[in-house]
Amino acid sequence: MQSRVALVTGGTGGIGSSIIERLASMGHRVATNYRDEAKARAWQERMRARGVEVFMTPADVADAGQCEAMAREIEKALGPVDILVNNAGITRDTTFHKMNAQQWNEVIATNLGSVFNVTRPLIEGMRERRWGRIIQISSINGQKGQYGQANYAAAKAGMHGFTISLAQENAKFGITVNTVSPGYIATDMVMAVPEDVRSKIVAQIPTGRLGNPEEIAYAVSFFVPDEAAWITGANLAVNGGQYMGW
Questions:
Q1: Do the domain assignments include residue 12?
Q2: Could you write out the DSSP letters of every residue in 151-164?
Q3: Is 243 a catalytic residue?
Q4: Which listed residue (34, 147, 152, 184) is catalytic?
Q5: C-alpha span between 143 and 126 (Å, rounded)
Q6: Number of domains within the chain
Q7: For the chain, which terminus, N or C, has the lower number of CB atoms within 10 Å?
Q8: Are residues 40 and 54 in contact, defined by beta-carbon separation less than 8 angstroms?
Q9: What is the H or E stretch that residue 106 is in?
């Protein structure tokens, strides 16, 4: 497969880092966004030490104007983006009867609004070149819901609705659009949860363990090659068997 330009939003996190490393190992040139420059540059140096070069540009994915500028910066530095992984996401967990408008709006804007903001400046170029891969990183909780996550579950479920609509609109242009829905992954965020709580989570997973970020990266990479051109509108659940929906 030829080398292409890939954008992974939220790439400095645990899952994002693994996706970037996997795509780079496939020969692709990879970019990501950041909001905190000091933290991002430190992360970039750690990736460089692992032999992975990542182009970085500032952008808040909840801001359409910043996403437009990000797309142009990446295109100027690396070339047109053919592979997009919408991975950026946040949580503002609380039960709905206690949730305020800010907690709702921040999660919807960052987790769901971002897929419009980031994809919109890139889709026309993919259609012109008649090749593209767009992959949403959703969540098991977008499939089954989760107590205290009405905002997060709504946004993550909406991501797959976006996937299946965009897949239908762009199939004839050589663009596939798919979703990966991870279960509980051993990222810093999950490992910071008290051990007794984590044990209860693991007890619900048939494989008996948390997932690894590298396993999500592999799932993403499955959708990228030319051999995956007939797979579009799919939702690949990667959750150790915790949720087995159709």
A1: yes
A2: HHHHHHHHHHHHHH
A3: no
A4: 152
A5: 29
A6: 1
A7: C
A8: no
A9: helix 101-107
Reading the block at residue 238, the tokens are 């990667």
* Predicted local confidence at residue 206, as pLDDT: 98
We report the CATH number of the domain holding residue 49 as 3.40.50.720
User: Is the residue at 242 inside a domain?
Assistant: no
129: its two tokens: 């070149």
Rounded distance between C-alpha atoms, residue 221 and residue 209, angstroms: 22
For residue 178, is it within any domain? Answer: yes
- What lies within 8 Å, CB to CB, of 1 at 6+ separation is 26, 27, 224, 225, 226
Backbone angles phi, psi at 119, to 5 degrees: -75, -35
Q: What tokens appear for 95 in the block?
A: 């039960």
Tokens representing residue 173 in the block: 């242009």
Compute CA distances 105 → 28, 87, 109, whole Å: 34, 18, 6
Helix, strand or coil for residue 204?
coil
Domain annotation covers residue 241: no
Rounded to the nearest angstrom, the gap between the alpha carbon of residue 56 and the centroid of all alpha carbons in its chain is 16
* 44-79 pLDDT per residue, tens: 999 999 999 999 999 999 999 999 999 999 999 999
